[in-house]
Amino acid sequence: AFLPSGVALRLIGDANDYVGKGLSGGEITVRPHPAAGHPAAGNVIAGNVIGYGATAGALWIAGVVGERFLVRGSGVTAVVEGTGDHALEYFTGGFALILGRTGRNIGAGMSGGEAVLLDLDPARVNAAELASGALLLEPFGPGTDPGLRAKVQALLKRHLEQTGSAAAEELLLRIAEDPERTWARFTRLIPRDYARVLEIREQATHEGHDPDGDRAWEQILEATNG
Asked: What is the pTM assigned to this prediction?
Protein backbone atom coordinates (compact mmCIF):
# COMPACT_ATOMS: atom_id res chain seq x y z
CA ALA A 1 0.00 0.00 0.00
CA PHE A 2 1.01 3.65 -0.63
CA LEU A 3 3.97 2.51 -2.74
CA PRO A 4 5.90 5.59 -3.98
CA SER A 5 7.59 6.17 -7.29
CA GLY A 6 10.86 4.33 -7.81
CA VAL A 7 9.88 1.17 -5.95
CA ALA A 8 8.70 -2.05 -7.63
CA LEU A 9 7.16 -5.03 -5.82
CA ARG A 10 6.78 -8.37 -7.58
CA LEU A 11 4.71 -11.07 -5.93
CA ILE A 12 4.77 -14.65 -7.20
CA GLY A 13 1.70 -16.25 -5.69
CA ASP A 14 -1.69 -14.95 -4.62
CA ALA A 15 -2.76 -12.03 -2.48
CA ASN A 16 -5.62 -10.94 -0.26
CA ASP A 17 -7.54 -7.64 -0.24
CA TYR A 18 -6.26 -4.07 -0.75
CA VAL A 19 -3.18 -4.74 -2.90
CA GLY A 20 -1.92 -1.34 -3.99
CA LYS A 21 -4.21 0.70 -1.74
CA GLY A 22 -3.21 4.34 -2.21
CA LEU A 23 -0.56 3.36 -4.78
CA SER A 24 1.25 6.63 -5.44
CA GLY A 25 3.79 6.00 -8.19
CA GLY A 26 5.33 2.59 -7.65
CA GLU A 27 4.81 -0.59 -9.64
CA ILE A 28 3.21 -3.82 -8.43
CA THR A 29 3.20 -7.14 -10.27
CA VAL A 30 1.19 -10.17 -9.14
CA ARG A 31 1.53 -13.45 -11.02
CA PRO A 32 0.96 -17.13 -10.18
CA HIS A 33 3.83 -19.45 -9.42
CA PRO A 34 5.01 -21.37 -12.51
CA ALA A 35 4.25 -24.63 -10.68
CA ALA A 36 0.76 -23.53 -9.62
CA GLY A 37 -0.80 -26.14 -11.87
CA HIS A 38 -3.46 -23.86 -13.37
CA PRO A 39 -3.54 -21.03 -15.94
CA ALA A 40 -3.66 -17.46 -14.68
CA ALA A 41 -6.58 -16.46 -16.90
CA GLY A 42 -9.93 -17.26 -15.30
CA ASN A 43 -8.49 -17.95 -11.86
CA VAL A 44 -8.60 -15.59 -8.89
CA ILE A 45 -5.20 -14.32 -7.76
CA ALA A 46 -6.06 -11.33 -5.55
CA GLY A 47 -8.93 -10.22 -3.33
CA ASN A 48 -11.28 -7.27 -3.11
CA VAL A 49 -10.70 -3.52 -3.34
CA ILE A 50 -7.44 -3.80 -5.29
CA GLY A 51 -5.91 -0.39 -6.06
CA TYR A 52 -8.31 1.50 -3.80
CA GLY A 53 -7.64 5.24 -4.11
CA ALA A 54 -4.53 4.70 -6.24
CA THR A 55 -3.21 8.02 -7.55
CA ALA A 56 -0.28 6.99 -9.78
CA GLY A 57 1.92 4.06 -10.73
CA ALA A 58 1.10 0.71 -12.31
CA LEU A 59 -0.55 -2.60 -11.44
CA TRP A 60 0.08 -5.72 -13.52
CA ILE A 61 -2.08 -8.64 -12.36
CA ALA A 62 -2.09 -11.99 -14.17
CA GLY A 63 -5.42 -13.38 -13.06
CA VAL A 64 -8.82 -12.36 -11.76
CA VAL A 65 -9.43 -10.04 -8.81
CA GLY A 66 -12.43 -9.58 -6.52
CA GLU A 67 -14.96 -6.82 -6.08
CA ARG A 68 -14.50 -3.05 -6.28
CA PHE A 69 -11.38 -3.02 -8.43
CA LEU A 70 -9.81 0.47 -8.57
CA VAL A 71 -12.51 2.15 -6.49
CA ARG A 72 -11.71 5.87 -6.34
CA GLY A 73 -8.66 5.41 -8.55
CA SER A 74 -7.41 8.77 -9.75
CA GLY A 75 -4.32 8.22 -11.88
CA VAL A 76 -3.08 4.63 -11.85
CA THR A 77 -2.50 2.43 -14.91
CA ALA A 78 -3.69 -1.13 -14.33
CA VAL A 79 -4.00 -4.35 -16.31
CA VAL A 80 -6.01 -7.27 -14.92
CA GLU A 81 -7.54 -10.42 -16.40
CA GLY A 82 -11.02 -10.24 -14.86
CA THR A 83 -12.87 -8.58 -11.98
CA GLY A 84 -15.76 -9.05 -9.58
CA ASP A 85 -18.67 -6.63 -9.12
CA HIS A 86 -18.44 -2.83 -8.92
CA ALA A 87 -15.16 -2.35 -10.81
CA LEU A 88 -14.16 1.29 -11.42
CA GLU A 89 -16.63 2.61 -8.86
CA TYR A 90 -16.13 6.38 -8.40
CA PHE A 91 -13.12 6.21 -10.74
CA THR A 92 -11.83 9.73 -11.45
CA GLY A 93 -8.61 9.26 -13.41
CA GLY A 94 -6.18 6.75 -14.82
CA PHE A 95 -6.39 3.90 -17.30
CA ALA A 96 -7.62 0.34 -16.78
CA LEU A 97 -7.28 -2.56 -19.21
CA ILE A 98 -9.49 -5.52 -18.28
CA LEU A 99 -8.77 -8.71 -20.22
CA GLY A 100 -11.51 -10.98 -18.93
CA ARG A 101 -14.99 -11.37 -17.55
CA THR A 102 -16.26 -8.69 -15.19
CA GLY A 103 -18.92 -8.64 -12.52
CA ARG A 104 -21.93 -6.34 -12.59
CA ASN A 105 -22.26 -2.58 -12.00
CA ILE A 106 -19.10 -1.40 -13.73
CA GLY A 107 -18.41 2.32 -13.55
CA ALA A 108 -20.96 3.40 -10.94
CA GLY A 109 -20.19 7.05 -10.19
CA MET A 110 -17.26 7.03 -12.64
CA SER A 111 -16.45 10.64 -13.54
CA GLY A 112 -13.00 10.49 -15.11
CA GLY A 113 -10.31 8.24 -16.47
CA GLU A 114 -10.97 5.56 -19.04
CA ALA A 115 -11.05 1.80 -19.37
CA VAL A 116 -10.72 -0.67 -22.21
CA LEU A 117 -12.44 -4.01 -21.74
CA LEU A 118 -12.23 -7.25 -23.69
CA ASP A 119 -15.51 -8.91 -24.73
CA LEU A 120 -17.55 -6.51 -22.60
CA ASP A 121 -21.17 -7.37 -21.86
CA PRO A 122 -22.86 -3.92 -21.80
CA ALA A 123 -25.44 -5.25 -19.35
CA ARG A 124 -22.69 -5.34 -16.72
CA VAL A 125 -22.11 -1.56 -16.92
CA ASN A 126 -24.03 0.61 -14.44
CA ALA A 127 -27.46 0.97 -16.07
CA ALA A 128 -28.22 4.45 -14.72
CA GLU A 129 -24.94 5.89 -15.97
CA LEU A 130 -25.53 4.44 -19.45
CA ALA A 131 -29.16 5.53 -19.61
CA SER A 132 -28.29 9.12 -18.71
CA GLY A 133 -25.45 9.24 -21.22
CA ALA A 134 -22.92 9.93 -18.47
CA LEU A 135 -20.89 6.90 -19.58
CA LEU A 136 -20.04 6.15 -23.19
CA LEU A 137 -19.27 2.76 -24.73
CA GLU A 138 -17.08 3.05 -27.81
CA PRO A 139 -16.32 -0.15 -29.78
CA PHE A 140 -12.86 -0.45 -31.28
CA GLY A 141 -14.07 -0.22 -34.88
CA PRO A 142 -12.08 0.85 -37.95
CA GLY A 143 -12.43 4.50 -36.93
CA THR A 144 -10.83 4.04 -33.51
CA ASP A 145 -8.01 6.45 -32.72
CA PRO A 146 -4.78 4.69 -33.78
CA GLY A 147 -3.10 6.19 -30.72
CA LEU A 148 -5.55 4.39 -28.43
CA ARG A 149 -4.93 1.09 -30.16
CA ALA A 150 -1.19 1.65 -29.88
CA LYS A 151 -1.57 2.38 -26.16
CA VAL A 152 -3.50 -0.83 -25.55
CA GLN A 153 -1.00 -2.84 -27.57
CA ALA A 154 1.88 -1.34 -25.57
CA LEU A 155 0.11 -2.24 -22.32
CA LEU A 156 -0.38 -5.81 -23.53
CA LYS A 157 3.34 -6.07 -24.28
CA ARG A 158 4.29 -4.63 -20.90
CA HIS A 159 1.83 -6.94 -19.14
CA LEU A 160 3.38 -9.92 -20.89
CA GLU A 161 6.89 -8.78 -19.91
CA GLN A 162 5.90 -8.28 -16.28
CA THR A 163 3.72 -11.33 -15.70
CA GLY A 164 4.29 -13.81 -18.50
CA SER A 165 0.56 -13.53 -19.20
CA ALA A 166 -0.70 -16.14 -21.63
CA ALA A 167 -3.79 -13.99 -22.22
CA ALA A 168 -1.70 -11.01 -23.30
CA GLU A 169 0.53 -13.20 -25.46
CA GLU A 170 -2.47 -14.69 -27.28
CA LEU A 171 -4.05 -11.29 -27.88
CA LEU A 172 -0.83 -9.86 -29.29
CA LEU A 173 -0.60 -12.83 -31.64
CA ARG A 174 -4.20 -12.41 -32.75
CA ILE A 175 -3.70 -8.67 -33.31
CA ALA A 176 -0.78 -9.47 -35.60
CA GLU A 177 -2.69 -12.16 -37.51
CA ASP A 178 -6.20 -10.71 -37.69
CA PRO A 179 -6.14 -7.13 -36.39
CA GLU A 180 -9.64 -5.89 -37.19
CA ARG A 181 -11.45 -8.95 -35.88
CA THR A 182 -9.35 -8.86 -32.70
CA TRP A 183 -9.68 -5.13 -32.07
CA ALA A 184 -13.45 -5.48 -32.50
CA ARG A 185 -13.48 -7.47 -29.24
CA PHE A 186 -12.42 -4.38 -27.27
CA THR A 187 -14.64 -1.57 -25.98
CA ARG A 188 -13.64 1.77 -24.52
CA LEU A 189 -15.55 2.93 -21.46
CA ILE A 190 -15.26 6.64 -20.73
CA PRO A 191 -17.36 9.31 -18.99
CA ARG A 192 -18.94 11.70 -21.49
CA ASP A 193 -17.65 14.86 -19.81
CA TYR A 194 -14.15 13.45 -19.45
CA ALA A 195 -14.12 12.55 -23.14
CA ARG A 196 -14.98 16.15 -23.94
CA VAL A 197 -12.15 17.38 -21.69
CA LEU A 198 -9.68 15.19 -23.60
CA GLU A 199 -10.99 16.56 -26.92
CA ILE A 200 -10.58 20.17 -25.75
CA ARG A 201 -7.04 19.56 -24.54
CA GLU A 202 -6.09 17.78 -27.75
CA GLN A 203 -7.55 20.57 -29.88
CA ALA A 204 -5.71 23.20 -27.84
CA THR A 205 -2.42 21.38 -28.35
CA HIS A 206 -3.13 21.02 -32.09
CA GLU A 207 -3.74 24.76 -32.34
CA GLY A 208 -0.55 25.57 -30.48
CA HIS A 209 -2.18 26.61 -27.22
CA ASP A 210 -1.38 25.47 -23.69
CA PRO A 211 -3.82 22.63 -22.80
CA ASP A 212 -3.54 23.80 -19.19
CA GLY A 213 -3.93 27.47 -20.07
CA ASP A 214 -6.83 29.80 -19.33
CA ARG A 215 -8.40 29.43 -22.79
CA ALA A 216 -8.60 25.65 -22.58
CA TRP A 217 -9.87 25.74 -19.01
CA GLU A 218 -12.65 28.15 -19.92
CA GLN A 219 -13.82 25.69 -22.57
CA ILE A 220 -13.51 22.76 -20.15
CA LEU A 221 -15.56 24.51 -17.46
CA GLU A 222 -18.23 25.41 -20.00
CA ALA A 223 -18.38 21.85 -21.39
CA THR A 224 -18.63 20.27 -17.94
CA ASN A 225 -20.93 22.89 -16.42
CA GLY A 226 -18.25 24.22 -14.12
From this structure: 0.94
